Amino acid sequence: MTTDLRVDSQAFARIVERGALWSRMARAGDRLPIQPLIEVDLGPIHLDRLLDTGPVVLLFVRYASSPACAAALRGYATTLAPALAERDAHLVAVSPQLPERLRPLKQDFLVASDPRHTLIDALNLGFTSPGADVILGTHRSVLPFAAAVVADRTGRIRLAEVRPDWSDPIPPRHISEAVPAVVP
Fold first, then answer.
1. How far apart are CA 25 and CA 42, in angstroms?
2. Phi then psi dihedrals of residue 76, to 5 deg
3. DSSP state of 31
4. Which of 66, 151, 80, 152 minimizes the C-alpha distance to 109?
5. Sign of the dihedral defined by the CA atoms of residues 179, 106, 44, 86, in that order
6. Whole-angstrom distance, CA of residue 69 vs CA of residue 156
7. What does each C-alpha distance from 45 to 71, 84, 112, 165, 173 come to in angstroms?
């Protein structure tokens, strides 16, 4: 496992060195791209249909066997998920890993695969990590940065917080404060 984290850190360092990384990423005020995802239990889900019934919170994680990602999601299940449920918001963990490999991450919220990283690319949240294709099972080596994206029901992004990795997770308070109150 240490090797996987080292590869991710090295890939991230190379991307940062190229510059202009942060200016390309999604930010508050942008529109949420509507891309289909594959939920581990439900199959295809559509972000536009989720937005029809409430705000959407997307948490981007690397893969199921990442201890940092799994720990962050367990924490969000107890702290963030209840607060979002009160606001009729949908919480979705997103990874480029194959859906069947993501099953261990399943909590009381949606866990979805973006195996061709179309949503990750549309939000400019991905980076190439050589060797990731093996653990993802997709023949692709793109991983997302640790990120939380909150979109209101109109699809407008209200928060896009990005970090280099999940060893320092985004505080649940930052995420829940960005979720708009329920409008009847």
1. 29
2. -65, -30
3. B
4. 80
5. negative
6. 26
7. 25, 19, 8, 26, 26
Q: Does domain 2-178 have CATH number 3.40.30.10?
A: yes
Cβ atoms within 10 Å, residue 36: 14
DSSP 8-state symbol, 153: T
pTM of the model: 0.87
- Who contacts 103 (Cβ-Cβ below 8 Å, separation ≥6)? 40, 64, 111
- Looking from the CA of 108 toward its CB, the CA atoms found within 13 Å total 13
Residue-range domain boundaries for the chain: 2-178
User: Mean of the per-residue pLDDT values for the chain?
Assistant: 88
pLDDT tens digits, residue range 87-121? Answer: 999 999 999 999 999 999 998 899 999 999 999 99
- Residue 158: other Cβ atoms inside 10 A: 18
Count CB neighbours of 174 within 10 A: 13
The residues of the chain scoring below 70 in pLDDT are 1-23, 181-184
To the nearest 5 percent, what fractions of the chain are helix, strand and coil? 40, 25, 40
